[in-house]
Amino acid sequence: MAVSEAGKSENLQTTKLIATWLIGGVVLGVSALGVYFTFPLGKWRMKKKNRPVRVYMDGCFDMMHYGHCNALRQARALGDQLVVGVVSDAEITVNKGPPVTPLKERMIMVSAVKWVDEVIPDAPYAITEEFMKKLFDEYDIDYIIHGDDPCILPDGTDAYALAKKAGRYKQIKRTEGVSSTDIVGRMLLCVRERTSSESQNHSSLQRQFSHGHNQNSEDSGSGSGTRISQFLPTSRRIVQFSNGKGPGPDARIVYIDGAFDLFHAGHVEILRLARGLGDFLLVGIHTDQTVSAHRGAHRPIMNLHERSLSVLACRYVDEVIIGATWEVSRDMITTFNISLVVHGTVAEDNDFRKEKCNPYDVPISMGIFKLLDSPLDITTSTIIKRIVSNHEAYLKRNERKTESERRYYEDKTYVSGD
């Protein structure tokens, strides 16, 4: 029986091809004529099917605050794993001015945020082609994330232009009412007011910060050129930051309290030690009025709700008391079933033993008080002193940022998201 030309060709292919395997991303074929290769397969395409979605976000994370934490929370929600790049001190200095906190401290802060899975130190300020390839190939990054506020380089170009061009960019909503520039501006305004003999009520700025009032640069008289944003706390934001679960019936509950103003690496490290002493860490955060009474009218720099969110974002913290009393009472210990009360050796209130009313008298009398050796010699005053000692440089830094901040707020439109 005659066989068509097409049939002959098909039979020939069947005879020649014995088997094929997929080896190392290449289709390998064995035939009667020997071994042959076909097209290579994209590595990331093969792996993506059975691996988590990994997203990347970078930043300076200088004077880290709840706005940074909320950005990281939103970024993490866009994938299964969040990798964070922390920009080097040198790159920050070139692009924005001198950082307040050095890389080592910023790494501690970012690593402690509960939505972060991995941290890359010394990340570049701009996403270069080489670094983007490294993210995709070595870190298996699927998407690069940034907020809806523009990130413009000194030459006027978009820092995320390459990621957008590659189709691997996703945007999140910027958190309202706070920025590092804003916080530095608060301190500069306080320094100005404290040293000015023409000042009105010397506690006015602190009261405005505590109650979320908007202090524009035009009416501040500070010369800092800094727009103080308005913080708008919501119950939903607290829920988003909360772990949403309490301690088990037999949990050893550790309690630590404080102002936790300008949440910094020293706070993180003492919280880490405290959490290691039990199963559940409860943190008491003092009211603005309590902090002012013990540390002066210009404190706290950040209000109670802002401080609460910063502490809640820390992976070592299980729950917070928003507006804890100064004294740790027997009723509080009973109500929360506290097993141990701790306090760090490096703190701004370490004269408590000399006070007429020691706030820890009750836990001391019950034998459940412990003084912890603080790993870092950093307090909120340390951060403020860094600003004050180099305030001219920070004034210039904030002045450079003022125009972009002003444009952002003037041109801002509604952006959906969290």
From TrEMBL:
Its EC number is 2.7.7.14. Residues 56-185, 255-354 form the Cytidyltransferase-like domain. SUPFAM superfamilies: Nucleotidylyl transferase (SSF52374). Residues 196-227 are annotated as: Disordered. Keywords: Lipid biosynthesis, Lipid metabolism, Membrane, Nucleotidyltransferase, Phospholipid biosynthesis, Phospholipid metabolism, Transferase, Transmembrane, Transmembrane helix. One of its GO terms (molecular function) is ethanolamine-phosphate cytidylyltransferase activity. One of its GO terms (cellular component) is cytoplasm. It catalyses: phosphoethanolamine + CTP + H(+) = CDP-ethanolamine + diphosphate. The chain crosses the membrane at residues 18-39. Pathway: Lipid metabolism; Phospholipid metabolism; phosphatidylethanolamine biosynthesis; phosphatidylethanolamine from ethanolamine: step 2/3. This is Ethanolamine-phosphate cytidylyltransferase.
